[in-house]
Amino acid sequence: MVEAENSNKKGPFDLAFLWNNLFVWACVIAVSLDPMFNYIPMINEDNKCIKMDNNLKIAALVFRSLTDLVYVVDMILKLAKAFSTLKELSWPWKRAELLKKALEIAPIWFHIVVDFLAVLPIPQVVILVFFPKIKGSASLDTRKYLNFILLAQYVPRVLRIYLSCKNLTSNPEGYNVWFRGLFNFFLYILASHVFGAFWYIFSLQRETACWRQACGKDPRYCIPSSYNCDENISRNITYLNQFCPIDPSNEKLFDFGIFLAALQSGVLSSTDFPQKFLQCFWWGLKNLSSLGQNLETSTYIWENAFAVSISIIGLILFLYLIGNLQVYMSTSAQTYIQMEFRKSELGEKKKQKQKDIESWTEKMGLPELARSVIKEEIMKNAKFLLQENKEVNVETVFFILPKNLQKAIKRCLCMPILKKVPTLESMDDEVLEEIIEYLKPMIHNEHIDIIKEGEPITSTTFIMEGVVWTFRNQSISNNGNSLSTHHDHSLKGRERLDKGKFFGEELFKEWATDLKSLEEVPTWTKTVKSRLKVEAFVLTAKDLKIVVDKFKQHFQKPAP
After folding, report:
1. Angle at 90 (CA atoms; ends 88, 95), nearest 5 degrees
2. Which of 124, 209, 254, 285 is the most buried (most CB within 10 A)?
3. Tens digits of per-residue pLDDT, 75-106?
């Protein structure tokens, strides 16, 4: 009997697959929340000092702690997996086996290292600890290093997302196209978000740099410090406004360059986070999309480096997008060509299968009405025959047809043969109908031994198509010392069975009527070998026993 092929699917509760999905989303959320730390420092224009947005600081710390916890859990799981792999090694360790295991767990350790670098509390330390306390002549250089460290952590966090996303699906071809497109879009949005956040923090740093420069020129009006609002340091606000004019600005005194728009908009002193975020995000998205063409920079070297990085990153993302589009178009074209070829091929196969079905129904001797119904039902489910390239026979046909039609065809094909069985000749149709219910289709290829003499009779076979020969084995002496067995191929010793015949009827006349157990079935007295390919229905001894138990009065021998 043809059975449906089981596809290799993941279980409904695959913890590894579920965790990988959750981890990817946690990484995406984490890397999107990191720029929040850049918005915590604010400018107090009235006192010319830096203060912290405490509400935003608390929110950023809580979200960062939650996402870091996910990284820690992933590291623990990876460590457990690495140690479990090492435990498989048997002592004493063999060099080849140890090298094999080392190569096997190398990617796991790489993921652990990336997780560790991603979870380092760099934004918390840089923004909340060091940034407000930097002062002195070396403060500008110190902030440059801190800015670089702040940017560097985005590398392992984005890399971790990419590594995790590679294992999300079992369909590599379709997955790669869509994943690359979505990942490119995510990088584009993330880059805009990050550039906007750093534009904000760099604007704040440029204004404090102007204050520091003003105080350095004339210490009578202010003292160079960290400009933290918590410090009780007096400074001449009028002097700082004159030396660092913003609206309108004076490029001869101090050129704020691309950061002037942030200062003039008042976004640096706003406590409205959505306003700050959207304005900075729009600035990043606008300039990344235009590759920084509209940026008018000052002569400040790090400002120009920031503008150059916007142009380069925008160009890289654009080229990456074009490359993915080319891959997508190429894949789509190949898929379209393959589909068209497949349609043409399936069309030819369908025509051939229609001929095969017509030939099979005619060969089986089915009525004309039954032929049309069977043909219609099979073609409704022709996908199984066409895609699996199955041959049209009793097994494949019965695999496709619905139960009620299967029973009708079995009744049409098998009822006449059942009535030829001596034990069943006088049986009621009710009993025969029950037997038909348990008949199963079976295929035997040509030139094979279906049953060998001396084996237990486990079924009765009713031939629908094909030819078999039955014959006895003969034992002859080998030099008078031993016995050998060979087939009797003489015409006298064999019998030809073809369509409409059956073999294994001993189950009915020697076993079923005595109501014996399954362990007491008779044995074959002949060998049965297929001459041509055989299509048949079989009734197993187990199923026959069910029928006999249900209709005992019909199978009991009459009293003597």
Report:
1. 100
2. 254
3. 888 877 777 766 665 555 556 666 666 666 77
